[in-house]
Design goal:
The chain is mainly alpha-helical and about 375 residues long. About 55% of the residues lie in helices and about 5% in strands. The N and C termini lie far apart (about 100 Å).
C-alpha cells in the first residue's frame, strides 16, 4: 500500500491494518513450540550446566507432554495440566525395573525448568518469543510445597533409636559391607557400584575415586579422596570371602557373582537391597523409613557434628558448592554442645596463654 493510499484511510481502518501487520510480524515467534524451545536451549545451554543428563531427562518430559504446543499459549492452567500428567506417569527402568510415580519435588524441578525456559527465550538476542508468557505467573499456583530436607541420621552410638548396630544386627555380609562403606565414606550408590578394590588404601583407610564418576558435567567430573572406616574394610574382606572363586578376583568391590563373567552390581541393586534390609529391621527415623541415601547424609552430618570444616566435608562428599550442606547437614543438640565445648577449650587455652605471658614477661 502506498503512503497516499494509507493516508486516505479512516483512523479505524488504519488501526485495523496496523494490528494485522503487527500480528503477521509476530507470527513466527508466536508459532514457536516447546519442542523448538527445548532444542534451542539444549544446543546453547546444556553444556554449561551441572548434571546435564538430569536436565536432558527433564527436557524429554517437557517435549513429550508439551512438544507441539505453542510457547506463547502457555498459561498457569497449562502448567498445572502438565503437573497432573506427570503425577500420573509410572516410573519404570533401572536394572531391577523399579516402579512408582515421580515425586512432587521432581515435578517441581520440571515446572521450574518451564519458567526458566520462557524467561531465557524472551531474553535472547534476537528474542525467540515476543514476551515471557509465564513472567507474571503466581508460582504458588504451579509449585507444590514439599519438605525436601530429610532428618534421618544413622548414629554410631548403639543406644540411639536409629543406629548402625540396629541396622546391622542380623545383616548378611553383603549388607554389612554395603552399609558400612556408605556410612563411613559418604560415597554415592553409583560410586559404590563401580568401586574397585585398588581404589582403597587399606593402610591409610582412604578411597581414591577417579575423575568421571561423580555427578556433574561429563567432562568436568573431578576425582576426589574420601575416608573409609576400619570396620568397613574388614566387612569388605568378609563379604568377598563369601563370593565364588571366579568373582573374588574381580576388580570391583561389589560383584554380580551370578554372571559367568563377573560384573559390577547395578546402582539400583543397592537401593533395593537396602530397602529390604530396612524393612526387616523396621526402625524408622524422624523422616520415616531410612533410605540408602540417608547413609550419605549421616556421613556428612556426623562429620560436621564432630567439628570437620564445611569445606572439607564438601570435598569429601564430592559436592561442588556449600549449598548442599543445608540439605544434607542435619543440625542437632549434640553438635551445638560440641561447638560449646570447642569454644570453651579454645577460650581456656587463650586465657592460659595470657596468664603465662603476664606471669613470665619477656626480659628485654
Amino acid at each position: 500500500m502506498s503512503a497516499a493510499a494509507f493516508e486516505s484511510l479512516t483512523p479505524q481502518q488504519a488501526r485495523t491494518i496496523l494490528a494485522a501487520l503487527a500480528a503477521a510480524a509476530a507470527e513466527p515467534a508466536n508459532a514457536f513450540t516447546w519442542r523448538e524451545m527445548w532444542d534451542a536451549y539444549a544446543r546453547a545451554e546444556i553444556g554449561k550446566l551441572e548434571a546435564p543428563l538430569t536436565q536432558r531427562a527433564m527436557g524429554g518430559h517437557v517435549v513429550r507432554l508439551l512438544g507441539d504446543r505453542r510457547v506463547m499459549e502457555t498459561t498457569s492452567a497449562v502448567v498445572r495440566d502438565y503437573r497432573a500428567k506427570r503425577r500420573a506417569d509410572v516410573i519404570r527402568g533401572g536394572c531391577r525395573g523399579a516402579g512408582g510415580h515421580p515425586s512432587e519435588k521432581t515435578i517441581n524441578n520440571e515446572v521450574i525448568l518451564l519458567l526458566r525456559l520462557t524467561r531465557w527465550a524472551a531474553r535472547q538476542q534476537p528474542a525467540l518469543i515476543p514476551v515471557d508468557p509465564l513472567a507474571s505467573i503466581n508460582r504458588a499456583d504451579v509449585l507444590v510445597p514439599v519438605n525436601n530436607v530429610r532428618l534421618n541420621v544413622v548414629e554410631d552410638v548403639p543406644t540411639k533409636p536409629l543406629s548402625l548396630s540396629t541396622l546391622l544386627a542380623s545383616a548378611a555380609p553383603l549388607d554389612r559391607a554395603m552399609v558400612l562403606v556408605a556410612h563411613s565414606s559418604g560415597i554415592r550408590r553409583r560410586e559404590m557400584a563401580l568401586l574397585q578394590m585398588d581404589w582403597i588404601d587399606r593402610r591409610e583407610r582412604l578411597i581414591d575415586i577417579p575423575p568421571g564418576l561423580s555427578k556433574g558435567q561429563r567432562d568436568r567430573k573431578r576425582g576426589r579422596t574420601t575416608v573409609i572406616s576400619k570396620d568397613a574394610i574388614e566387612a569388605i574382606g568378609i563379604y568377598r570371602a563369601t563370593l565364588p572363586a571366579r568373582a573374588q578376583t574381580a576388580a570391583w568391590v561389589f560383584v554380580n557373582a551370578r554372571r559367568r563373567i563377573p560384573r559390577p552390581l547395578c546402582p539400583d541393586f543397592f537401593t533395593h537391597r537396602f530397602r529390604v534390609l530396612q524393612k526387616s529391621v523396621g526402625v524408622d527415623g524422624p523422616s520415616g523409613p531410612t533410605w540408602l541415601h540417608d547413609l550419605r547424609r549421616s556421613f556428612i552430618t556426623l562429620a560436621r557434628r564432630r567439628g570437620t570444616d564445611a569445606v572439607a566435608v564438601m570435598k569429601l562428599a564430592g559436592h561442588t558448592t556449600l549449598d548442599s550442606q543445608e540439605r544434607y547437614h542435619v543440625e542437632s543438640r549434640e553438635e551445638t554442645l560440641g561447638i560449646r565445648d570447642r569454644m570453651e577449650r579454645a577460650r581456656a587455652a587463650d586465657l592460659q596463654g595470657l596468664r603465662y605471658t603476664v606471669e613470665r614477661p619477656e626480659v628485654a
